[in-house]
Amino acid sequence: MANTILVGAQWGDEGKGKIIDVLTEQADIVVRTQGGNNAGHTVYIGKTKYVLHLIPSGILRKTKVCVIGNGVVIDPVGLVGEIEGLAKIGVKVQENLLISETAHLVLPYHRELDEQREILKGKNKIGTTKRGIGPAYGDKAARVGLRMIDLINPVRFEEKLKIKIKENNEVLKAFGAKPLSFKKVHDAYRAAGDKLKPFVANTVVYLHKAMQKQKDILFEGAQGTFLDIDHGTYPYVTSSNTTAGGACTGSGVAPHRMDRVMGVMKAYTTRVGEGPLPSENSEIADMLHGMGREFGSTTGRARRCGWFDSVATRHATMVNGIDDLAVTNVDGLDTLEVIRVCVGYRVGGKTLDYIPNDVEVLARCEPVYVDFPGWKVSTTKARRWKDLPPRARTYLQALAELTQAKLAIVSVGPAREQTIML
Ligand code: GDP
Ligand code: IMO
Ligand code: MG
After folding, report:
1. 13 lines ligand 1 (CB under 6 A)
2. Which of 252, 289, 324, 402 could cysteine-pair with 204, CB 3.0–4.6 Å?
3. Domain covering 104-196 assigned CATH 1.10.3720.10 in the classification
């Protein structure tokens, strides 16, 4: 399979977890490279549902090694909870998990600040997951963050944490929020540190040695292209590079070691949180929510829904260098009479075929649609391309052409077997 970067080509929740699980069969190592436990990647094995937040989705296949790379921000208490939660349902996390010693930590003051800043912003809030992601990456960029390597060194951790709690308690006071107890935070995080210590490693050296042994690596992107801090709908984004370049900086593997980029996209569009979504549509949202679909895996919030936006996905191909596409949730459209695809934006008397950088302009864009006739039969039992109804094939081919990448995988249900490899 060689080294593959998998990215979300929309606003997150494209079904990356499911596709990672399918592709992991052929990989040796799965690496998370950015984001934190704001991610929620769902994998079904049989009837059992697993939602992974920090641990790569490859963990569900026993013989694979999973790596949490240097670009991820880790809430140590959250990670221990995730490991223990998996153990309870029979998934062992032992030598098969490595955590980068240089990954930054998310601490309680980050979560608290995330929440306070959202309250202060009022109607302009981002709609974050409140996991402390923005403040943690903020500390990293300001060079005042704590890392895994600090957490597992009790003396250094105590010394650094004292200063951080002191500083952040002043900030929290200014927000009118309750200050944190140094002792409580210290004891809880040190306990988590002891539990995580056996997993902490120099993951850059590990990955390079693995590549020398011709191991195949799968880079599991979190969030999606339009939540990227540079290429997304700023400020309605997350705080990391969710695009393909983030896989290199977040793992220490060079760009020319990567063999291909796969983009995952839904056959329609969803977004959680605030910010522009040009093809948002209440008809498709009501239909999907009515089917019990499109509720967030991390926060349970109802996702906003819209028609497939090919202006956006074509941009995703450009900034990620997407070679291959995995289109998921095709079955979500099975009952529709007419399926719309956004092919342009109308704004200020012009038609654009690209995403404008100014979010206020993007918010004013009116989608230009092309309509496709629905296939109106269930696709959930299709296992080969030729099992799909002709109208579904036409639709999928059009999505790939408009996105300017090659259709490689079609997903017609949440289960492993509901996957068509082209
Ligand atoms: P991720 O964050 O990109 O991993 O996506 P999430 O797991 O947050 O959300 C995707 C949702 O779609 C999950 O509930 C998946 O189980 C589900 N899913 C993925 N592919 C398909 C599909 O082809 N059909 C259906 N019905 N559900 C799917
Ligand atoms: P996965 O990996 C969908 C969104 C939040 C909010 C914005 C900023 O499951 O696709 P943050 O907490 O990161 O500061 O929130 O980004 N967001 C996601 N939306 N899927 C995700 O991850 C997301 N992670 C963050 O809803 O709009
Ligand atoms: Mg998700």
Report:
1. yes
2. 252
3. no
